[in-house]
Design a protein that fits this description.
Strand content: 15-25%
Low-confidence stretches: none
Number of domains: 1
Distance between the termini: 26 Å
CATH topology: Rossmann fold
CATH class: Alpha Beta
Helix content: 40-55%
CATH architecture: 3-Layer(aba) Sandwich
Strand order of the largest sheet: 1-2-4-3-5-6-7-8
Radius of gyration: 17 Å
Length: 247
């Protein structure tokens, strides 16, 4: 079932999978993705007895965005996520995020802990926790700028995804270029301390996979060490992380 709801000042396309009275799980997608990216995962979660909610973050898919839209913040994205939960009648939920979405999930757990029954952070780009990650970020930015000059936004997004998605998903990501670049500008906007991370009480899984870059793996390791009782799932996916904390 699909809906258009009012986010923090923009219309958001949201999608429900499974029975509305089942335990809810909110899936927050990352950069160069959308709610459709997680449709199969949501169907799997629904088959396992959960009420899976996905949505297109602002600037992606069928969701709107401000004009002009050149940058966002994690806090702004979190406000949208709260609006989705409110509109779909979910006062609490398991919150699972991938990439940029993992930052949104963390922010929800930190600022609205009563709304998060469990937390899944897949490929969390918390590079402030990784000594030496600044060099890798500078090199990544340089590659994006080179690709932009050579082939425009489509080439930059294709280079960033680096073959990790099929042609259909790549085309959707390229069509949402403003969402991607707004996200890129907002990656460093989550201000969080180690003390705050140690204060998270929701059951937590931190997930990475075989395609996760080394700096993100290191960030995931650091996050799992800081959050009390966090489960580190180094060879799983977002669905496996949800299943781990929902068991």
């Amino acid at each position: 079932m699909s809906h258009v709801i009012e986010g923090a000042g923009v219309p958001l396309a949201a999608y429900e999978h499974g029975e509305a009275d089942a335990p809810p799980v909110l899936v927050v997608h990352g950069m160069a993705a959308d709610g459709q990216t997680w449709a199969m995962a949501a169907a799997e979660l629904a088959a396992g007895g959960l009420h899976a909610i996905t949505y297109d973050r602002r600037g992606y898919g069928d969701s709107g965005a401000p004009e002009p839209y050149t940058g966002t913040t994690v806090a702004e994205q979190t406000a949208d996520a709260v609006a989705v939960l409110d509109a779909l009648g979910a006062p609490t939920a398991i919150v699972a995020g991938d990439g940029f979405g993992a930052l949104v999930a963390l922010d929800l757990a930190l600022r609205f802990p009563g709304r998060v029954t469990a937390l899944v952070c897949a490929n969390p780009p918390l590079l402030a926790l990784v000594p030496g990650a600044a060099q890798g970020l500078a090199e990544q930015r340089g590659r994006l700028e080179d690709a932009l000059r050579a082939g425009g936004t489509a080439a930059a997004i294709a280079g960033w995804l680096n073959g990790r998605v099929d042609d259909v998903a790549l085309a959707r990501a390229q069509a949402a270029a403003r969402g991607f670049f707004a996200d890129y500008a907002g990656l460093a906007t989550l201000s969080v301390t180690r003390r705050q991370l140690r204060g998270i009480r929701a059951p937590t899984a931190v997930v990475t996979g075989s395609f996760t870059p080394p700096d993100i793996v290191a960030a995931a390791d650091a996050l799992a060490q800081l959050v009390p009782g966090a489960r580190r799932e180094p060879a799983a996916d977002l669905v496996g992380g949800v299943q781990a904390v929902a068991a």
